[in-house]
Specification:
- The chain is α/β, with parallel strands linked by helices.
- 27% of the residues lie in helices and 27% in strands.
- The strands form two sheets. It has an eight-stranded mixed sheet with strand order 5-4-3-6-1-7-10-9. A two-stranded antiparallel sheet has the order 2-8.
- Helix 1 runs parallel beside helix 3.
């Protein structure tokens, strides 16, 4: 069974906002390594569209967005080339190495986990919350940034029952961010 891994950037006050984290080379290298451990990525519509807009190589010119500096390219290459599954009831079509996960998302993810391979990665906020509630996430990585923003979505808001986790790894970064990896007890 392939493990389903979840990694998310979060502020000290528990907010999940992709603009709140200050990107640096060390954190991008870690994120590229995290994604590279997966056979496929699973996103909801919002996360898929956000990632596609930011990290997709231009299909006509083959170039990266102007804002991508050289140390971001390993992450960009990893996410751009990855197989992606998208849970959406509003999108009509996909490309960018992607296909829809149709039907019940829990059942669809269970089926993907049953396939052979190294693992799956889920990103975002809403879809991981639903998958956590179903007990489908096998590993949680929280990258906590030394910042308090006081607004926005909070991690796991609306979870139906507590998640008991045990710490299996911890890495501190020069930026003051700390990546903590947990597995369900």
């Amino acid at each position: 069974m392939r493990p389903l891994r979840y990694s998310v950037n979060v502020t000290l006050d528990g907010c999940v906002d992709h603009m709140a984290a200050v990107p640096d080379e060390e954190l991008h290298r870690r994120a590229a390594e995290t994604l590279a451990r997966a056979d496929a990525l699973i996103f909801g519509r919002v996360t898929y569209q956000m990632m596609e807009e930011a990290w997709r190589r231009d299909p006509v010119t083959g170039t990266w967005g102007e804002w991508i500096v050289p140390w971001m390219e390993p992450f960009a290459k990893t996410i751009d080339s990855a197989k992606k599954y998208v849970v959406s009831s509003t999108l009509d079509s996909l490309d960018w190495n992607s296909e829809f996960l149709r039907g019940d998302p829990g059942e669809a993810v269970r089926a993907l986990k049953e396939e052979p391979g190294e693992g799956l990665f889920v990103g975002g906020v809403t879809l991981p919350l639903a998958l956590a509630d179903l007990g489908l996430i096998d590993e949680y990585e929280l990258v906590v940034h030394p910042r308090v923003i006081g607004h926005g979505l909070t991690l796991f808001a609306g979870l139906s029952k507590p998640l008991d986790l045990r710490l299996v790894d911890r890495v501190e970064y020069k930026s003051g961010a700390v990546a903590m990896r947990y597995e369900p007890c």
